[in-house]
Structure to design on (444 residues):
């Protein structure tokens, strides 16, 4: 069976790998010159099965309103004359209740656990190295009210088998002593020992090379121009190299998997498939370490600013904030500069003298980056088949693409070959119950 995967981030490359494992002929198309150069490039580096609560909760609407005038807000809604933004927002508001929150958590945790197991299997079989640290993930709080609320989140997550636990300030500082200089402002935290961290870009590019060694064809530097639909099915995809004067190529296959992150939704709408995926602009900074011995080894979430930090060799990756304002990727706007500089200031405050947090204006090199997180109103990705024949989708992972990447790719490959992924999850075109009832090939 010949399958074309559109997109070479962690989701697309994982999909390609697992398809190759099942005997597919695979072509991967991406506009960038290598894998993992967009959404997967410089994320928070966390494999956070236990820290996966949906953005939509009962308090989210009021927080979003409060934060609208704050350039450094964790979630910044920037209204635009964009119907897709407003439609997505209305769907998001519909999820801001306790029943929806619990329902969404259940599916996200199920995918996370399945994906973490798939990642471990993949690392064992390939030997890929990517600054992996199996030290768990900690989450610290700086006010009592937030710490008290954390207890409710812990109980909810434990209902679904996640072993997150509350820890005192003293225990948190035993788990990660790097925060002792900031310890008097920490009220407590949570910790899950089974989570981990690592560089998504390094991993994805290494996996792409192994896919090529196994026969996958990569069309890097190629734009996806259009999906060609005839009747109820996709016949081909038109692509063109970014080289000057390149001709359009029509690629035919038995199946087409759209894994283009935030760009999946506009592509699919051209053939009548309408999915509520909207870009959430996230930011990160990668700081050189001045005192490696003082840098954290445990990947950590700072609840005060809603940012995550992960050790990557001799660097510290810090990432966070979501900005809902379209497909803007600029780093030089006033809002973008404020959000980037917030990351530098916060790390200088929490880990004084540990990293070179000087801004470029001050002579530093913080490697600021921004990427678009493909968000759904529920934070549950779309994995499965569309109503258009031969067209499949693997997108909408929001901030959890690295956490859910290996499992999403494996599940996609299983569905394409008629297998049943071993988890209760509402796969697109199946539904949880429908999937249980069907194990026949569905590639067409």
């Amino acid at each position: 069976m010949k399958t074309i995967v559109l997109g070479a981030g962690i989701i697309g490359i994982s999909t390609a790998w697992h398809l190759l494992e099942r005997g597919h002929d695979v072509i991967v198309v991406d506009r960038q010159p290598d894998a993992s150069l967009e959404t997967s490039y410089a994320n928070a580096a966390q494999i956070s099965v236990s820290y996966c609560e949906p953005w939509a909760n009962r308090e989210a609407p009021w927080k979003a309103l409060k934060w609208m005038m704050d350039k450094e807000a964790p979630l910044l809604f920037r209204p635009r004359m964009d119907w897709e933004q407003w439609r997505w927002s209305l769907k998001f508001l519909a999820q801001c209740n306790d029943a929806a929150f619990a329902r969404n958590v259940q599916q996200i945790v199920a995918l996370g656990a399945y994906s973490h197991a798939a990642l471990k299997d993949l690392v064992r079989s390939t030997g890929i190295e990517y600054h992996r640290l199996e030290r768990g993930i900690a989450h610290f709080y700086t006010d009592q009210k937030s710490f008290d609320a954390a207890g409710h989140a812990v109980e909810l997550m434990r209902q679904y088998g996640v072993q997150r636990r509350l820890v005192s300030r003293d225990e948190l500082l035993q788990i990660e002593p790097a925060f002792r200089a900031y310890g008097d402002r920490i009220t407590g935290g949570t910790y899950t020992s089974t989570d981990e961290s690592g560089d998504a870009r390094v991993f994805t590019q290494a996996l792409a090379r192994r896919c090529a060694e196994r026969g996958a064809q990569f069309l890097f530097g190629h734009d996806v121009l259009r999906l060609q639909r005839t009747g109820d099915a996709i016949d081909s995809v038109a692509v063109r190299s970014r080289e000057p004067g390149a001709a359009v190529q029509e690629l035919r296959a038995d199946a087409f998997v759209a894994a283009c992150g935030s760009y999946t939704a506009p592509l699919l709408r051209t053939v009548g498939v309408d999915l509520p995926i909207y870009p959430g602009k996230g930011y990160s900074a990668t700081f050189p370490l001045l005192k490696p011995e003082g840098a954290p080894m445990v990947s950590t979430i700072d609840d005060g600013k809603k940012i995550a930090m992960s050790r990557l060799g001799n660097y510290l990756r810090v990432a966070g904030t979501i900005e809902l304002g379209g497909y803007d990727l600029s780093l030089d706007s006033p809002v973008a500069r404020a959000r980037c500089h917030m990351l530098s200031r916060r790390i200088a405050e929490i880990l004084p003298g540990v990293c070179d947090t000087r801004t470029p204006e001050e002579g530093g090199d913080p490697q600021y980056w921004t990427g678009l997180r493909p968000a759904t109103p529920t934070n549950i990705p779309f994995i499965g088949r569309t109503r258009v024949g031969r067209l499949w989708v693997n997108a909408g992972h929001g901030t959890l693409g690295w956490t859910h990447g290996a499992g999403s790719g494996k599940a996609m490959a299983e569905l394409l070959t008629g297998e049943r992924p071993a988890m209760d999850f509402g796969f697109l075109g199946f539904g949880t119950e429908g999937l249980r009832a069907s194990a026949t090939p569905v590639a067409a």
About this structure: Residues 122 and 406 are 8 Å apart (CA to CA). The longest strand covers residues 278-288.
